[in-house]
Amino acid sequence: MSNSFSPYPCQIISRANGLDYEFTTSSGVTFLVYFAVETDYFEGAGFANFVVSIGFQPKTGRITRKGFRVPTEDDPQVFITIASAIENYLAAHPHHLVTWVCSRADDQETARHLLFDRKWRLLHRASPMPLRKVNLELAPREYMSIIYRTDSPFKAELEMLLPEE
Amino acid sequence: MATLKKLNWKTIIHNMIVKKERIEAHLDKGLPLSELKDVKFIQPLSLPDNQ
Which residues in B8-47 belong to E strands, given as ranges? Predict the structure, then answer.
């Protein structure tokens, strides 16, 4: 599949077990990206892998006083690379929802949530693909974003699945 | 058409977070995702040309 609209500024350094991949920024911070299938909530022919959750995990990087890793000067590279991962996924799976969940009770997760929202703005601004993000916070400190293509041939079905904001 | 088995999005989000925390704890130990037999992963597609 073409990745002509996905700059991937970071160097992709490995592909572990075919289930994830790692990218390394120019200063050597390494992240891992994966997509986990959410099979428990939906049924119906053709929708077995309808909802996936993206995860991205720093493997190296600066460790803060609170003991977690955060990107620093590499932020733009990290944002664009993960945004490209989402965009490329939806290019290949126009009928899917990509979710991002986090617990705001966790400082590290809060940092990643901020990272994700900044990535989203970059993705939304740069992408030729019409995307929509729905934000949900249905429980204290539990947060979800749902991203889908508004030009999906399954748009009506996708939006039927969405909860009310 | 897909149908919802569960309409409780609060529960869905909570369960997704629990699963994510399990995945991250697993990765923090340096273990591969393939060892998480009860979680299904989709292979990331369209890796960039610089792989």
Answer: 41-42
